[in-house]
Structure formats: structure tokens, C-alpha cells
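worker-03 picked up job from queue 'complexes'. Input manifest follows; two sequence lines, order preserved.
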Amino acid sequence: GAVVSQHPSWVICKSGTSVKIECRSLDFQATTMFWYRQFPKQSLMLMATSNEGSKATYEQGVEKDKFLINHASLTLSTLTVTSAHPEDSSFYICSALRDSNQPQHFGDGTRLSIL
Amino acid sequence: AQTVTQSQPEMSVQEAETVTLSCTYDTSESDYYLFWYKQPPSRQMILVIRQEAYKQQNATENRFSVNFQKAAKSFSLKISDSQLGDAAMYFCAYRRPGTYKYIFGTGTRLKVLA
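worker-03 finished. Artifact:
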């Protein structure tokens, strides 16, 4: 149980385009989802916390107009990287929380490459 | 502010041997959660083991066990009978109750030698 699916797993696109990444909890309802960014050989950096039906809470230094997060249902959160540029290239990982006593369950991650 | 430190960027262990990965943290809270996650080359984060701070007993999951020293703010992971599939990045994480956010350490890359 507690499977989190992330799609796509890898995307390559031209500079200036917007990219949407989906995070789904397949077998549980997630009231809270998280989006992380991971640079090569580094740790995970929390970008934002996404709560179903409300606006996401962004960490300090994360541009909310650049990284749009929508948590439309209890099983789906999306991260849209708007007008992506090469410096946005990174590995993005989502996680979902079933309830406050459970650990976060992570998706497989999305490798984003902006040319 | 809470911090999590993993002082070993890389560790190696011979197959079937035992290895211990260290993690220290800094907090003024008395109640919190600690986790070890594994990130293999596939990049998916997999929960290895977790510990609630109010529990004195060290958590154990098959070949994985922790040495939780609350006063010393230390949370090391011991892997017994190491297997080739254990090779991965290991991240220690802290979570304060009431916030759901994790604070991750910088990770330790574990190599398992055949």
C-alpha cells in the first residue's frame, strides 16, 4: 500500500515552455503533498507544501509564480514550471502524506531537462 | 532551527558485513520523529526505518536497526549482512510533530563491495 505515482518520469523541452508534473496517490487519500527539488549529488530541498482545496505554502526563496502548484483532489497534485529555463533543470520529487502519524511516501521523481 | 547532519559523505562495506551510518540532529523539541530513507539509482525515496522520540526502544526492521541516543541527539543506522541491493544514498530526516515537514541531512552514499 501507499503507492505514489509521478508523471512524467523524464521530460526534455525547449526554454520558454511550461511543464506540468503530476503526483498521484494511487491507493490512499492524501490531504497533504510535498514538492521537492534535488540537484545532483545533493539532498532534497522542500519547495512547497500542497493541501487539498487550498493554496500551497511555499518555502522561502521559491518563486510561487514560477512553480505553480495545484492540489485539485485528495489524490492529485500538480507542479507546473512556467516559462522554464535551463536553470530550472533538476530532479523534482513529490511525496504524499496519508495522515499525521504516517511517514511521507515518495513518488519516483521527474527529471526535467530544459534545453 | 532544526538541523540534521550526516558527517559521512560516502561509506563502503563488504557484502555480508555490517555497516553503521551516522546522523546527528539539533532540536529543542522533546517530541519528534526520525527517519532513514534510501534512494537507490532509480531515485525513488524508500522508507527504511523510523523512530518516535518518545520511544526508548530502538526501532528494528529486519537487517536494519537504529541506535537512537536522545540525549546525544544521535540517530545512527546499522545495516547487518549487507547486500548488493543495499547500495544507495541514505538520507536521515527529522520531523517535528504538528508540521509534517522533513528536514533532510545531506546524505551518505553507501557502496557494497562484492
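worker-03 released lock.
The CA atoms of residues 10 and 19 of chain A lie 11 Å apart.
The first strand of chain A starts at residue 4 and ends at 7.
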